[in-house]
Every structure is written in structure tokens, then in C-alpha cells.
Design goal:
This protein is an alpha/beta fold and about 240 residues long. Helix content is about 30%, strand content about 15%. α1 crosses α2. Bound molecules: 2-amino-2-deoxy-6-O-phosphono-alpha-D-glucopyranose.
């Protein structure tokens, strides 16, 4: 894994957006894999700026998203579908029909997982963006998820529900289950970019770079990917000074 340590959140977002922009320029009809959470918002802002300036265009781009809360319709403010429209899609020249995410209110969860796996088979990302959960989860693949997993429904751990509750009015409103791309789907991307910012990610970053590869630390599998880059700011890198 290539590791880039930058000063702060803004630098991380800038360096990450430049990597994304280059891929979009090289392949204007390519596929980009996107993520939600607080971490990628700055990168999305920079991509919006680049699109507004005319530096890049999303007209031919297809997107796939990692995950979605189960039980939230795309109109719900806390759904990841809403997040993507609000933080990126509504501000760029993408065709919304070319954006893909699991349907949180699909009546048949198993059929929805199968549908999404087919989408992912057809749309292999040229680059996949990832954040990291404080317990080392990627997308919603919680510790213990098999490395060969594909899209599935997960029961969220207490720590993830607690971490994500900051965005809801109360912890009771956080869904207990979610759809997520599996780890095998994520590893299928041609390139992976993982971002980490802030002291609350320092332990996860340390574990990612220093611990052995194990299903108890889902992000650890990224060490085996042929083209994975980690960009973290100084606060997130604070425990790995000697690398
Ligand atoms: C959620 C998402 C993950 C994300 C993680 C970290 O659980 N499913 O994809 O990486 O949160 O979020 P944040 O960037 O807000 O710290």
C-alpha cells in the first residue's frame, strides 16, 4: 500500500480529488466507486469545483456506491442516496441514471443483493474511494466479514451505530441493518483510494498498516491489493510515525 501523509483534511481532499480528476480525464466514460461519511465530503467539493471550472466532466461517467442503510428510502435525508445527491450529483454534470446504489427499501433483500452484484460485475470501478470506520470497517463490512463476501445485508455493530448516530436526531433512529458491497466487490476495483482524517482514525490507520491481515480487521485486506493508496492527515497518522 502506498501511503501519503498530508497536513490536514483540506490537503487530503485536494490530493485525493487530483487523483480522481486524472482518472476521469484519462477515461471520460469510466466507472468511479464512491463512498459516504464525513471523510469524502471535501474531496467531493474539490471535484465539484473542477467540474464547474470545466476541468473535468462527468457526462460519460458511471458511479457505484458502497452501501446504503436498510429501511431508508432515497428521499430520506440520512440515506446515502440523498447524501450523494446533496454532496455531489446535484452539483455536477452527471446523468443521474448512470449512478448506482443499493435500494434501501427493496422489498426482497436477497434479490436486491443479487441485482447489485450484477451491476458491479458490469461496472468494474477504475477507482474505488473508501473511508475507514474506527473499528477498521470498510463500507459496512464489519469485523469478521469474510474476505470473499459480495453484496449482502449486515447487522451494524454497536460502535458503528454510535459513530454514525451523530448525524441522526437520536441513536434510536440509526438503522440497525444495511446493504453493503462485499469485500470481494471492493477488491475488484482496479485502483483503491482510502482516506483517513482526524485523531479518531489514528488507531484504525495504525492497525491497517501494522497489524496482520485478518478478517477481524476488514481494511487489512487492502494491503494485498495491487494498487491501493492511503491518504491520511497528520492527526490520523499520529500513531505511525516510524513508518
Ligand atoms: C460509515 C460508512 C463507511 C465510512 C465510515 C466512516 O460506516 N458506511 O463507508 O467509511 O462510516 O465514516 P466517516 O468518514 O464519517 O468517519
Amino acid at each position: 500500500m502506498k501511503t501519503i501523509i498530508v497536513k490536514n483534511y483540506d490537503e487530503m481532499s485536494k490530493v485525493g480529488a487530483d487523483i480522481f480528476a486524472q482518472i476521469i480525464l484519462d477515461k471520460p466514460n469510466g466507472v468511479i466507486g464512491l463512498a459516504t461519511g464525513s471523510t469524502p465530503i471535501g474531496l467531493y467539493k474539490k471535484l465539484i469545483e473542477k467540474c464547474t471550472n470545466g476541468e473535468i466532466s462527468f457526462k460519460g461517467i458511471h458511479t457505484v456506491n458502497l452501501d446504503e442503510y436498510m429501511g431508508l428510502p432515497s428521499s430520506h435525508e440520512q440515506s446515502y442516496a440523498f447524501f450523494m445527491r446533496d454532496n455531489l450529483f446535484n452539483h455536477i454534470d452527471i446523468d443521474i441514471n448512470n449512478t448506482n446504489i443499493e435500494n434501501g427499501v427493496a422489498p426482497d433483500a436477497q434479490a436486491e443483493c443479487e441485482r447489485y452484484n450484477k451491476v458491479l460485475d458490469e461496472l468494474r470501478p477504475d477507482i474505488q474511494l473508501l473511508g475507514i470506520g474506527s473499528n477498521g470497517h470498510i463500507a459496512f463490512n464489519e469485523p469478521g466479514t469474510p474476505f470473499d463476501s459480495v453484496t449482502h445485508v449486515v447487522e451494524l455493530t454497536e460502535s458503528t451505530i454510535k459513530d454514525n448516530s451523530r448525524l441522526f436526531d437520536s441513536i434510536d433512529e440509526v438503522p440497525t441493518h444495511a446493504f453493503t458491497m462485499g469485500i470481494k466487490n471492493i477488491m475488484n476495483a482496479k485502483k483503491i483510494l482510502i482516506l483517513a482524517s482526524g485523531a479518531n482514525k489514528a488507531k484504525a490507520v495504525y492497525r491497517l498498516l501494522k497489524e496482520k491481515i485478518t478478517e477481524d480487521l476488514p481494511a487489512s485486506i487492502l494491503n494485498t491489493h495491487a494498487d491501493c493508496t492511503l491518504i491520511c492527515d497528520e492527526a490520523a497518522a499520529s500513531l505511525i510515525n516510524n513508518i
